[in-house]
Specification:
Chain lengths: 465, 243
């Protein structure tokens, strides 16, 4: 018996009992639609999580701080270990760590021709670790070992230069940039001469110069920018990077200068850059997101405080996983009911068609033909219901996403943060749903089909119907 | 004449709870090729059981049924299906047409199970229906036809595969006298023309007149075998259906 014949016979017998076929298919439609809709809600939550994580910048970076991790037996770990070069080396050897670098930051002033940048965060970083930390140069290159006077600008850092007396234009440009418009660059950091200093007199001059002729001269450094970074998170985009050793020296200089000034003027500066053991922060790049937690646990054990962007997402994630499981279960129950519906229809159909089956067997239908007929009939119910159910759920998904159903919106956006999609039906979800409903159909049709196959031809013929 | 079917010591015993009811006891028969046989007996004589056993629809309790050299009683369900498909045609008292299918489709059904291509199927089925006088009823469903017409469809279905043996179980049981004779003329005519073996089960002595050999069955035993040697009413020579 050719497959085409099997198919046409199945369609015919399904069409003969239109109402019953329709009702059975309706069951599958509802089952599929509910399962797909439920899963689509879960997928949308995941999607919004992914977006959230995207907004966090590089989620595989753990930041280590130079103080003890908060813990219950805090007495034991009050004294933080020293976050020095040794510690950095030790951290970089933790499994799952790609690179670790100390990071110091200081605030410096820049000047280029008539343009100034009076406040900019400068990070000191080990030049070799830049690439491993995930920094990439959009123009020029990254820092390399030996780059003492060379710096690298963050993607947006150069926008902060402005003409001394034209602050309005500066804020206008930042606004334009924020709106995604192209912005005029006043300083070409790669080619223009740039000087930098920690001394405020560098920018603002010294109002008290006449009174203090013996005050120290303003110290400024010529620097050269060797590269501009690709866009990253906000903080990186606004900053300038330099060699950590050079940065430390600068920091030391600044401290000394402030000390001498404070002696001169008789006040003590509790400067942010007061000398300390080791570094404030160390950045640790992990191999992937899965390692982040174990790496940070390991660092915490060493007596430092490690923090990673996704830490507070974890509990939220586990909550939503539970919710997704619940949504899936609701869908699964309706699919189960649909499967029972198919099985019931097929059993009924066999009772009704006992005689027919007998006749077919007597006039030469092979056992496999009979089985095929019934299996395919069940599968057709499943597939038809599955396809229609998927279409229905696409419609429901569209409604959920577009008609702002206040209560749903409030409920679901609360879970995912920003308002985004409520229901996400992916092509693979559609495919799996249709496949699943076909399998459900086959499965529910299996036992009835076997029963039909095993009917004795003779008794079947003798059955009155 | 060569034997097409041979029965050796066939017994059938039904169990009904503790009771054992013998339906057939020790049947030994030979059926020759191209002959028309009638199993004649009253209701409960065991004639239908015998037919079912010969056709492989029922297993005998003991004995052998040899069809063209192969043992029917030893065949599996799968082999039996193939056997019926290839060598056997059935005509039933209650027609047993599939109600969802048209006359033409009902007749094609055995060919569908054989896996014959659609074109050949259609041609042969049309020719067959024409031969039984239903050329105007191709697309009628069984419910739209009279009993006689339905039986014609079922005869066409039995012959479509050009089987070696046709079994007819009370083929005219539901028909009036006039139609009965028409039907018997038709079925014996085709069988004769094609030199096919026809085995008819009936309780009607008038039907028995169509047979070459009448086998009287009583209480599960062959009472007598009488050769009529009187060929059935001749029918006009028909064009070969399978051209």
């Amino acid at each position: 018996m050719s497959n085409l014949d099997v198919f046409s016979m199945c369609v015919r017998s399904l069409l003969k009992r239109k109402l019953r076929t329709f009702l059975t298919i309706l069951g599958v439609i509802i089952g599929t639609a509910s399962i797909v809709t439920m899963i689509s809600l879960g997928l949308a939550i995941n999607e919004r999580f992914a977006q959230e994580i995207d907004n966090m910048g590089d989620v595989t970076i753990v930041t280590v701080y130079n103080f003890s991790p908060p813990s219950e037996n805090s007495a034991a770990s009050v004294r933080a270990a020293s976050l020095d070069d040794n510690a950095v080396t030790k951290i970089s050897k933790i499994p799952g760590v790609r690179a670790a670098t100390a990071l110091i930051n200081l605030n410096l002033m820049f000047k280029s021709g008539q343009y100034i940048m009076p406040y900019c965060t400068v990070y000191g970083i080990s030049p070799g670790a830049m690439e491993a930390m995930g920094y990439a140069a959009a123009e020029g290159r990254l820092l390399e070992p030996g780059d003492k006077e060379n710096v690298v600008f963050g993607a947006k850092a150069e926008l902060q230069f402005y003409k001394n007396n034209d602050y309005t234009y500066y804020s206008e440009r930042l606004e334009q940039d924020r709106m995604g418009e192209s912005v005029e660059t006043l300083v070409d950091v790669l080619y223009d001469r740039i000087t930098m200093s920690y001394d405020y007199r560098f920018i603002y001059g010294n109002q008290s110069e006449e009174e203090n002729p013996e005050s120290t001269p303003v110290k400024a450094f010529n620097i050269k920018s060797v590269g501009i970074l690709e866009e990253r998170d906000y903080q990186t985009d606004q900053s300038v990077f330099m060699d950590i050793t050079a940065a430390r020296k600068l920091m030391e200089d600044q401290r000394k200068a402030e000390q001498s000034q404070s002696q001169q003027y008789g006040y003590f500066s509790g400067s942010q850059n007061a000398q300390r053991q080791g570094y404030d922060t160390v950045k640790v790049k992990c191999v992937d997101l899965n390692m982040v937690r174990s790496v940070s646990d390991e660092i915490n054990k060493m007596g430092f405080y490690a923090e990673f962007p996704t830490s507070n997402l974890d509990s939220l994630q586990s909550m939503t996983t539970g919710m997704q499981a619940m949504l899936g279960a609701i869908g699964a129950v309706s699919m189960l009911v649909a499967a029972i519906g198919i099985a019931n229809t097929m059993v009924m159909s066999i009772y009704e068609r006992t005689r027919e089956i007998g006749v077919m067997k007597v006039i030469g239908a092979a056992l496999s033909d009979i089985r095929k007929l019934f299996l395919l009939e069940a599968a057709l119910i499943g597939i038809t219901g599955g396809c229609t159910g998927v279409l229905l759920s696409l419609g429901i998904s569209y409604l959920l996403n577009n008609a702002k159903l206040g209560i749903f919106d409030a409920f679901f956006s609360g879970l995912g943060g920003e308002t985004g999609v409520i229901s996400l039906v992916t092509p693979s979800l559609c495919g799996i749903a249709i496949l699943f409903s076909a399998v459900i159909g086959l499965f529910s049709g299996y036992f009835p089909a076997r029963r039909a196959m095993r009917l004795s031809a003779l008794t079947a013929i003798k059955t009155d119907s | 004449m060569e034997n097409i079917i041979e029965l050796r010591g066939v017994k059938k015993i039904y169990r009904m709870g503790p009771e054992r009811i013998p339906a057939l006891s020790d049947i030994n028969l030979c059926f020759e090729k191209g002959q028309i046989y009638c199993l004649l007996g009253t209701s409960g004589s065991g004639k239908s059981t015998l037919l079912n056993i010969i056709a492989g629809l029922e297993k005998p309790s003991a004995g052998e049924i040899i069809f063209n050299g192969s043992h029917i009683e030893q065949m599996s369900e799968k082999q039996l299906a193939l056997f019926r498909q290839k060598y056997v045609g059935f005509v039933f008292q209650s027609y047993n047409l599939l109600p969802t299918l048209t006359a033409l489709e009902n007749v094609t059904l055995p060919l569908i199970f054989c896996g014959a291509p659609k074109k050949i199927r259609q041609r042969r089925a049309r020719a067959m229906l024409k031969a039984v006088g239903l050329e105007t009823r191709y697309n009628h469903k069984p419910s739209e036809m009279s009993g006689g017409q339905q039986q014609r469809v079922s005869i066409a279905r039995a012959f479509i595969n050009n089987p070696q043996v046709i079994f007819a179980d009370e083929p005219t049981g539901n028909l009036d006298t006039k139609t009965t004779f028409d039907m018997m003329d038709l079925i014996t005519g085709i069988a004769h023309e094609r030199k096919q073996t026809l085995i008819i089960v009936t309780h009607d002595i008038e039907i028995a007149h169509y047979a070459d050999t009448v086998i009287h069955i009583r209480d599960g035993l062959v009472e007598s075998v009488e050769s009529a040697r009187e060929p059935g009413p001749s029918v006009e020579k028909e064009s070969d259906l399978f051209e």
